[in-house]
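Annex B. Sample input.
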Amino acid sequence: MKTLACGVFTIWQTGSFRRSIQHNPNAASGREAVVKYFSEVLTVEPKPIPDKLSMPIWLESQSEMPIGRRQFLILSPVAAGFGKAQAAEPFWAEVQSGKAIILLRHAEAPGSGDPPDFKLGDCSTQRNLSEEGRAQSRAIGDLFRANGIPSAAVYSSQWCRCLDTARLLGLGEVEPLDLLNSFFGDSSAEPARSAALLDWLREQRFDGPAVFVTHQVNITGLTGEVPDQGELIVVRIHTGRPVELIGRVPAPF
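Annex B, continued. Sample output.
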């Protein structure tokens, strides 16, 4: 039963599985959906999942709520396991030395863009991190610590979801940087904004880890990559040459 439960919850964390469950009108609850999916994919006899599992990591979806509004209780061992899984990546040494930097798209914030009347200094008018996004941010910080980076220079967009992500990393003081602000909805601004950020990065000399928390449009404009929320893009900045991608780390869950 322990092996079955571990497999169920590994599958539960994958985006494709979650999307399939969200579009399944017959899924009465999180537990029932997990068991049904697990049995169909692996063709094993469905078995009930006990209320408590003898697992070091416990992720519980509230069965009383629709899948699309599930809430997770996420404990620190999740981040520890995530950090170990990524610890072998060779780019971490370059991040530690400052030869490479990390561009981080803010953690999970449901929706896209912002309300039409949002104000930059008023978080209540903006699209903000969900509880899952806040837990993601902490887990990403644990990933850095698991790879020998207890602190870093942390820069952030002035949007609340970016600032909150940056602060919840727990890597040190966060410096707001307007060059990381979103230009979502104004694609004509992309060339000038991306060029300005790249020029600034080329002028910097980082002697240690540096993390830049920003938005999808900013990272795509700079690198051509389209990151998910909570995904890390690891790059080298060159003078006179394009930004060089050397690694990607997916969101922890």
